[in-house]
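Hi R.,

As promised on Friday, here is the backbone we talked about, encoded as structure tokens. Could you run it through your design pipeline when you get a chance and send me back a sequence?
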């Protein structure tokens, strides 16, 4: 989460909480049959569920909210209930068991803009995945719903729309994913002393062409290519292996606060407020805040979603960067 909201680091830290929603929760005109765990922020008390930005439900379906400034939502009509775009995430989490349910769920509502949240969130698109490994990108472009199968690619960032990212990714079709590194440059030439020019001076030459910026297109390409290469060479054999790979990939796009300038005097810094890892098949939701690299796990199989109330848990706590003493 790199939402650039105009708040200080301390204010942002106190904004986000880990929340649990029981079955039967009310969201506007909708009653949500499924319980879920989510990360939410209470912007303007936009809904009873706050601003849900990320979550997993009791069936393993997950939803991630990401910025899409160019999104255009639907016009209100009398045929279906209006749903603010800021409520799409909790609606899908509380309504859908698998990715295949998303289209039918969204057909029952009209997704509309939300003021003043549209100015804060700058509008959004959504990544939805389920316990079977299916994934879909949900976007509203030109006032129409677009659903893109994302099961094979498995990556989404912010602007521009998903189809643009796919075309941009094509520019890296020749990225080197071979297991053994070849000499870089022209054919080697013998010189005095038996050296060759040019010679392989270091490992990692295949990554020289990776985009290194923090822009959404850069992060999209970098995450996809690094994951593809890692899995091609050392495919995870266990869930713990997969967590280690995913955590390492997330680390490559971690934004340090202050390294990305504000867009205007009223805009906030973009920085990694928090990160999550999700194991839908195991119903496990892992989260860590900016100031602590230690992952914290929520086991959804141990929660009672039948109506038991859980207190909201702040993501941040007073700590010294998650450092613990080791006694010898």
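Update: got your reply. Pasting your designed sequence below so it's all in one thread:
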């Amino acid at each position: 989460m790199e939402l650039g909201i105009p708040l200080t680091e301390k204010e942002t830290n106190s904004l986000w909480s880990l929340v649990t929603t029981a079955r039967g929760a009310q969201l506007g005109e909708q009653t949500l049959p499924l319980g879920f765990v989510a990360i939410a922020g209470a912007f303007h008390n936009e809904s009873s569920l706050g601003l849900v930005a990320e979550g997993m439900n009791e069936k393993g379906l997950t939803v991630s909210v990401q910025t899409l400034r160019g999104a255009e939502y639907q016009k209100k009509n009398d045929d279906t209930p209006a749903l603010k775009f800021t409520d799409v995430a909790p609606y899908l989490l509380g309504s859908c068991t698998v990715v295949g349910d998303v289209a039918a769920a969204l057909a029952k509502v009209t997704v509309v803009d939300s003021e003043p949240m549209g100015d804060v969130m700058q509008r959004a698109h959504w990544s939805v995945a389920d316990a079977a490994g299916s994934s879909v990108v949900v976007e509203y472009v030109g006032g129409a719903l677009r659903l893109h199968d994302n099961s094979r690619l498995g990556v989404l960032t912010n602007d521009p729309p998903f189809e643009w990212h796919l075309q941009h990714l094509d520019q890296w079709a020749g990225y080197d994913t071979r297991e053994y590194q070849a000499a870089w440059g022209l054919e080697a030439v013998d010189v005095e002393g038996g050296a060759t020019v040019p010679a392989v001076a270091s490992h990692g030459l295949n990554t020289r062409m990776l985009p290194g910026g923090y822009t959404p297109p850069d992060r999209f390409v970098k995450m996809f290519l690094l994951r593809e290469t890692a899995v091609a060479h050392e495919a995870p054999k266990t869930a713990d292996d997969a967590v280690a790979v995913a955590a390492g990939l997330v680390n490559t796009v971690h934004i340090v606060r202050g390294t990305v300038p504000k867009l205007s005097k009223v805009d906030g810094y973009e920085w990694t407020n928090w990160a999550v890892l999700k194991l839908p098949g195991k119903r496990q939701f892992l989260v860590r805040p900016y100031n602590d690299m230690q992952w914290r796990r929520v086991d959804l199989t141990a929660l009672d979603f039948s109506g038991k109330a859980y207190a909201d848990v702040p993501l941040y706590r007073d700590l010294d960067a998650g450092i613990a003493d080791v006694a010898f």
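One thing I noticed while checking it: The chain has a mean pLDDT of 88.

Thanks again,
M.
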